[in-house]
Amino acid sequence: MIELADEGVVLRTYPSGEADRVVVLWTRTSGKVRLLARGVRRPQSRMGGALEPLAHVRVDAVRSRGALFVTRHVAHLARFEHLRTDYDRILAGLSVIEAIDAIPVDDLVDNELYETLLRVLVTLDDPTYYPTLVAPAFFARLLVHDGVAPEVNECARCASPGPLVAFHAPSGGALCRDCRTGRVITPEALGLAQRMLGGDLAGVLREARPAGSGEITAVFTEALEEHLGRRLKSARTALEAGTTRTVP
Ligand SMILES: [Zn+2]
Fold this sequence. Notes:
Bound molecules: zinc ion
Radius of gyration: 20 Å
C-alpha cells in the first residue's frame, strides 16, 4: 500500500549502507520527507538519476521505520537540462535549496513557497535569464515571506529618506549617514536592491552582471544568514566565485 504519493524537489542526498541512498525531498503537501532509495548507487539503477539534488520528481513510497519512507517509484516532472550543464546555474540552484533546507521547520508545508521554488528552477533553466542574482533574489523573497523584508527605500533605523550609505542586516536594512554601521553600500547596489524588491526582478535577471551585483549578493546572503541563524555554504561558495571572476 502506497503511503506517500507526492511531488517534490530533491534538496540533498546521502549514502546509506552498501548501495542505498537517503534522499531529502521537499514535497508539495507532506513537507520535508526522508526517502530510502534502495540500490540507487549501483550503476544499473534506473532511479538514481532522478534523485539528484534539484530534481523535480513525483514519488510513490511506503513507510519504513520511524519517519523514513522507502521509495517504490520515481518519475521526473522536469529535467532542467540547461540548468544542469552550467556551473553557475547549478551553484545558484544549490544555494536556493540549501536555504530551503535551512528553514528550521521539518514539516514545512507551504504551497506559495513551493511554487516560488519551482519558478526559481524554471528561471535557472531558461537561457534568457542570467543566474547571477537568482539566489540572492530568492533570499530576499524568503525574508519578505517571513515578514522581515529588508528595508532598502529609507533608513531602517530612523526612516530618513537618505542618502543611504550602508547595509546592516541586524538593523533590518539600509542605513543613512547618521545611523551608518555594517557594510558600506554603493548607490548602484542600492538601486539594484530597490529594483529587485520593487517589482523589476525579471528585468534585473535579464542583465548578465548589473553594477552592484556582488554587493547585493553579499548583503542578501548575510541578511538571510542572520535571519536563519546559520551560514549558507553554497551561497558563500557562489559569493567567492563571483568576486574572483572577471566578466568579459
Ligand atoms: Zn538613519
